[in-house]
């Protein structure tokens, strides 16, 4: 397996979003032929949990950034207003968003009996890319129970490539999907900050991929489909950033994405969600509503370390999604090849 | 029935959003006791169709504005990026969003065989308010078929009050829900422009309602619940406005809302969606991608007529939702009274 | 002098933005006939200082909100990016912005020798309304030294009406200009929060003013000019709000503005700047970049108190600008009457 | 002189923003020692004119995009609200913004006697970068007359490098400043569209520059200063784009910027202004306010051509600013070297 190393910062132990303490990832992969020989369920669900506790009762500070908005991600209106994330971040295919949101809602209602009864409602974040080249997306293969299963199987191990929501995705004409990376930012002599990233890659035209920056030799057998296509980028960190600061970090994802060769196509839903695990916000609290919390003074040094590391990490996670994804067969007998298989 | 008349512009023939030619509204009302005597399905779905043709193949120009974003409306990311609406605008309760989006997706897929196969995907707009005071929202009474039925029964008659998505809503402590109004803007000697508005009202504290502006005498029997709560405002027009101009119009909804007494509470999802039926945009076209279209030069006179009329119309639609809504019984034996019944 | 009292919250001791501890206001009024008998300098400068220390070295958290953007306010790009205010907020006429910004820059450079040499630059906020009905705005009567004088004469007394930047402004066809108000929000038994507001009012058509809500009898002698026109609204508070929370507060200004009768006209630069004096941010610091700061958990109760009080306070400040402004004569022999003089 | 060619689209005849018909550029360069031997005026002004007519009376459609907002550009509030540009776009150093805006105002007032008298006001766009490494920025060497001179000397020839506003700028540790490029997009067999770009480059750390993509060998003698620093990017086109579409184009500048090595540093004012010369909007008009105009239907093919070409063109303009800039001496005896001189 090729390995790559982008930029001047070290990665965490697993080079994975789960290097940010408490973050977990779960995948459910759907890979089934329908009775009709041309139809194939080649899709899935991926859940990113900001921490292991009750996500509704211990919210995390979060922000989103829309690189290009030709996409159907749900939940960003409230996330932007309040700067809070109170559910897992769910990823799936474009037409699976309702089913995944429904399943996640059922899960959260079951975990929290107060929701919709004695307290307010809950806001669920579901991102998507369009896997209809390989997946029979019109047949709506994703069901609510797949979302619940992805949440329940989440752990601190993160498989990459053609798994979970990444099962049917295509990137630069090759098999893409889930990729992850992390970066360690030195802070004091005995403490580092951690940044982690997970992408769902589904964009790009083969002619645009700057592959020679990453690997010597690629499989020439790419597919040529229109260059619309999307990426969902999730960023986690333990730096105590505010929602405004997280949005600034999220924007730097564009740098990493651009360096791979994307020009952010017209038909892309390129969307970033960033959260910090540092200052959790309780839903219920007996305390005064005045809190004391940690924050970062936005100085040139630390912010540029965070921004530069984010750009590197996103670029690496995208390339990793390509290097880890195996050749996959889907509907209409279509195959999308691994970039490194020969 | 009390009638009110706000501002200096005349309304259309029906004083209804369907005064904008081609716009249709459909309601499905759900009103059923569950086996448990305390649980009640007191909710519904409302569909607003921008025109009678194929909404995916003939898109309309649209914009959204977030007055306050504590809400779960879907589809705004893409609507904002492209300035286009390609589905009905669906309204329901907060936990019905997934089911309604799923049903609308099924309806649109059935109408358009190309979607998700030979052409791209579709973006569905679903707005919501929280009706959990009267409705057993945790039991998820809204199903996908309710959305399909609301679309299919849409017509140019618009019932108001405790119907469709408005069935379980509460406004200023009284029964609220669906309200509508329209305004006619003189343009030339033989042509007028039309503006229409439909609201789903679910906000406000009794002490804040400026009722004496509208009616002489009100039922004193309001409920006192927390002042969070939301409003969804849909604006239609036949003025050939661009998406930027529609957003400016949408912002003037805040003026009408403020005049009723709202201070736009912390817990509100106060969201506006505005569209114009004037310049339809084909999904498929054999023509050149250079179009000729009508547009409005933003001059003081016409824009101020549109803005002032929008403010008046939204205010009137909110008051109308109160005047038309009948006393309603819901879960836990709770009743919310009509503001005018005694 | 008529007095008014809007809403259910008490005002501070002076009912003035300077009720927020440390905030100061200074005015320079320019009222001079040019040699040409038709030309008149009827304008001025107003400075709002967030605190009495070095504003560059002790920044305050801030946000802006654009109600309508037909205006020329400077400095908002950086204020929005960083959530910080590092200069006085300056108000003047539309064509005085450059001179006032230049003067403020000179003042700040003189106070801070490091700026532009060993440290970075400085961002200055200057807001404006168009006073060209009374003021010979093309002759550029405002000079840099007027800005410096307004800063230097700032105190905790705030004169209202036709003073400073308010000298030539017109509101609802009557003499408008500077208005101020404050509100006290109960917090604990022995501590309150304070909100203060200062407006520069220059908008509205006489027919739209809801005057009967405020005063029994008005001077009928209003002027009738086009209904474009603007308002700048400055909000100060000692509540430890983040920049995102301050933006939410700033948005509630629209509620107060709407209640006076404005529909936010096409030609208006209606702009809000809000800051908190609670957590000052040092420009230079020997400390770690990790800070501990106070923050507010956004709960329904406290946020709705702040929002409702803001709406009331802005409405009252606008009405106060009318009640305090004296009949004023300007260019071309034009007079704009006080709303209460007969 | 090295030449570079980035991407698959051809450039216009001059590879310059003035390849877009009617666009003109003017520079005034200030290069004077002050009496004090350490102080140096090493700065200037650049004017970009969207067309050769009266810019106030024939406005062009425009948009802006803030890549990072640590900057002091003026005029964006109104440009964003109305989607219109009605002045030259002026570039200078950070503390020259007021003087340049003042001079441009004087120029526009002189050209248009109605402004501020019988019609409304005018909105001027001035962008800036901080040239204080070489320029004695605290001494405010830029005066209003420099802005007027830059406008008056504008032509369709565009000098690059250490000229105009670019005189004192530093990019990746080398002499930067003004760079330009253009791209031709095939439309029909006998018509092309044109895109042009002009940058003011003043950002980057030497270690981050991906120089080997562009030139074989560089001068090793870069300066090492903090990596904050900015870029102003101006994009012109004759494609009939709306303001929303222009904003989408402006966003693709980030792609080109990222590919040079920038991670968009914390301290950057990275700001894009884009305009189209296709549909001019008259300030005064006897016609109906309903216009017929050309527009582009946003299809994958044409939009991706425009987006990809924009990314390439911005990247090339940045590199060109480095290749064209000559070694420059400024305050405190400081020198910044040309990247290609040895």
Characterization of the model:
The structure is a homotetramer of 342-residue chains. The mean pLDDT of chain A is 94. In chain A, helix 2 (97-111) crosses helix 3 and helix 5 (253-260) packs across helix 6 (300-324). Chain A is built from 6 helices and 15 strands. Chain A is α+β, with helices and mostly antiparallel strands. Chain A is globular, with a radius of gyration of 19 Å. Strand 13 of chain A pairs antiparallel with strand 13 (290-296) of chain C.
Describe how the helices and strands are arranged.
4 copies of one chain form a homotetramer.
Chain A lengths: L23 E10 L6 E10 L8 E12 L6 H7 L1 E2 L3 E5 L3 H15 L13 E5 L14 H9 L17 E2 L2 E2 L2 E11 L2 E12 L27 E8 L5 H9 L1 H8 L8 E14 L7 E7 L3 H25 L3 E2 L5 E2 L6
Parallel strand pairs in A: 5-6, 11-12
Antiparallel strand pairs in A: 1-2, 2-5, 3-4, 3-12, 7-8, 9-10, 10-11, 14-15
């Amino acid at each position: 397996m090729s390995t790559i190393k982008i930029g001047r910062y070290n990665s965490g132990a697993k080079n994975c979003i789960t290097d940010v303490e408490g973050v977990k990832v779960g995948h459910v992969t759907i890979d089934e032929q329908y009775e009709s020989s041309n139809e194939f369920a080649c899709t899935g669900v991926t859940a990113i949990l900001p921490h292991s506790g009750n996500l509704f009762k211990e919210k995390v500070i979060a922000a989103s950034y829309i690189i290009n908005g030709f996409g159907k991600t749900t939940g960003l209106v409230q996330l932007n207003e309040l700067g809070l994330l109170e559910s897992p971040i769910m990823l799936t295919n474009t037409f699976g968003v309702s089913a995944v949101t429904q399943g996640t809602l059922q899960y959260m209602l079951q975990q929290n009996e107060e929701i919709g009864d004695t307290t307010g409602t809950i806001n669920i974040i579901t991102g998507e890319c369009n896997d209809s080249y390989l997946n029979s997306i019109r047949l709506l293969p994703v069901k609510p129970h797949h979302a619940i299963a992805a949440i329940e199987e989440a752990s601190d191990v993160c498989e990459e490539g053609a798994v979970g929501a990444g099962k049917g995705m295509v990137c630069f004409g090759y098999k893409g999907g889930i990729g992850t990376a992390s970066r360690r930012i030195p802070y004091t002599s005995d403490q580092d900050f951690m940044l982690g990233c997970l992408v769902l890659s589904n964009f790009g035209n083969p002619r645009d991929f700057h592959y020679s920056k990453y690997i010597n030799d690629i499989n020439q057998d790419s597919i040529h489909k229109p260059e619309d296509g999307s990426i969902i980028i999730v960023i986690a960190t333990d730096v105590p950033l505010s929602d405004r600061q997280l949005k600034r970090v999220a924007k730097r994802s564009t740098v990493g994405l651009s360096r791979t060769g994307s020009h952010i196509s017209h038909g892309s839903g390129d969307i970033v969600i960033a959260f910090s695990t540092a200052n959790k916000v309780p839903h219920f609290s007996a305390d005064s509503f005045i809190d004391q919390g940690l924050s970062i003074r936005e100085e040139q040094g630390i912010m540029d370390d965070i921004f530069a590391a984010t750009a590197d990490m996103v670029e690496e996670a995208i390339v990793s999604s390509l290097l880890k994804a195996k050749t996959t067969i889907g509907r209409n007998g279509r195959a999308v090849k691994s970039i490194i298989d020969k």
